[in-house]
Amino acid sequence: MSQLPPVPHKKSRDVVVAAICGMVVALMVGASFAAVPFYNWFCRQTGFGGVTQVSEKAPTEVLGRKVTVRFDSNVAPGLPWKFEPEQNEISLRIGEVATVHYKVINEAAREITAQAGYNVSPPQVGAYFAKINCFCFTQQTLAAGETREMTVVFYVDPSIVKDQDQDQDRLNTITLSYTFYRLADADKTADAGGVGKKY
């Protein structure tokens, strides 16, 4: 009884299937690494979720219309810091550059490193709220009992009044909120000199 000859294309088909599976896995891994930068880019472009914009200079136009900007400060559980704005709110013209200060105190008996995240509300204002200078996303290392003053420089983009889709005519109050989170792994390695970040 004679044996059937092997099918010549079976081995090459297995190689093609294996290669396709390998490519799919590589694409999925690449997509997972790209997801966070893409999401950050999307949020910065659209102001989604109250993410503010980045600016290197003041706008060329300042309008007569004013808005009130309120300042909120929070500390995540497990971080023994006192964190507060030096003023609770300001009134400024749209397009006017404002500078505000926050004060943070490390009330612990040891050096601690933390980092602040932020957002604005209402969320749709994020597309028009531009920061020139901010301490957010910069590691802050404070020695035991140390007090530090941190600065935020920002403006509300004049294009906010031209956007009819968001019904900005009724907008008169914006809240800028910060929350400090402890970075346990960075307590001994963070740069203590990073008091602010200029974009």
Question: Overview of this structure, please?
Answer:
The chain is α+β, with helices and mostly antiparallel strands and 199 residues long. It has two domains: 7-46; 50-198, Sandwich (Ctag/Cox11 (Pfam 04442)). 20% of the residues lie in helices and 36% in strands. It contains one helix and eleven strands. It has one helix at 8-46; strands at residues 53-54, 66-75, 81-85, 89-93, 98-106, 112-121, 129-134, 140-142, 147-156, 173-182, 197-198. The longest helix is centred in the first third of the chain and has 39 residues, at 8-46. The protein starts with 7 loop residues before the first helix and ends with a strand. Mean pLDDT is 77; it is low at 31-50 and 187-199.
Which keywords apply here?
199 residues; alpha+beta; 2 domains; 5-stranded mixed β-sheet; disordered C terminus
